[in-house]
Design brief:
By secondary structure, the chain is of the alpha+beta class. The chain folds into two domains: about 60 residues; about 140 residues, Nucleoside Triphosphate Pyrophosphohydrolase. The chain is built from five helices and eight strands, in the order αααββββαβββαβ. Strands 1, 2, 3, 4, 5, 6, 7 and 8 form an eight-stranded mixed beta sheet that branches. β2 and β3 form a beta hairpin. It is elongated and about 60 Å long.
Length: about 210
């Protein structure tokens, strides 16, 4: 772990303590101190990441209660031995997916994301992996993320350009385009290929 990530780890821990204290604390003076700790944590993130303090607070300090990871769902869809990727506005490619909505399950979310980003209706057939994002993707975020990869099957639909993606295409493992590494890297795409070809895949975790 480099020094920048160590700073981030300290800031995240301070934020977690402050958030729990603000939610569970009863004494108003203690709550004021927890608020100060949370602000210091946000300042640390802003200073090390060069992201504005207001933006950091929006991403980092807007939740209440005990701090838990965010959920990111990703779909692995295959056709003729190739995997489906969608092209994002910046020209890089990713597995269809995104943040889980609070009012639906993770499985329902990955189905919804595929419909929105790739125009396809799918079934979620198997969980390939449940991963702690910071153990696999860079850069490390100021909040924890749990990534869930699903093997999905297409039941209908066609791609239409939308506000998030401009194109969809199937790729072989030897012809992968530039990936949105913060969302999915080659190691994760290879894992999806392995799951697709396996007769007895066991869900990977961590």
């Amino acid at each position: 772990m480099d020094h920048n990530e160590k700073w981030l780890q300290w800031a995240v821990k301070l934020q977690s303590i402050a958030q729990a204290g603000l939610f569970y604390g009863k004494d108003e003076f203690d709550k004021e101190r927890y608020e100060q700790i949370r602000n210091i944590a946000a300042e640390m993130i802003s200073y090390k990441s060069e992201i504005s303090e207001d933006k950091v607070k929006d991403l980092f300090c807007s939740e209440t209660g005990y701090q838990t990871p965010k959920i990111d769902t990703r779909a692995a869809i295959f056709e003729n031995g190739k995997i489906l990727l969608v092209k994002e506005k910046d020209g890089r490619w990713s597995l269809p997916g995104g943040w889980a909505d609070v009012d639906i399950s993770a499985t329902e979310n990955v189905i919804k994301e595929v419909r929105e980003e790739a125009g396809l209706t799918v079934t979620a057939d198997m969980v390939i992996a449940v991963q702690d994002r910071e153990k696999h993707n860079r850069p490390v975020y100021a909040y924890k993320v749990c990534k869930i990869f699903y093997l999905c099957s297409v039941t209908g639909g066609t791609f239409e350009a939308n506000i998030e993606t401009t194109e969809s295409q199937y790729f072989g493992i030897s012809e992968l385009p530039e990936l949105a590494e913060e969302k999915n890297n080659r190691e994760q795409i290879e894992m999806c290929f392995e799951a697709y070809h396996s007769e007895n895949w066991k869900t990977m975790f961590d």
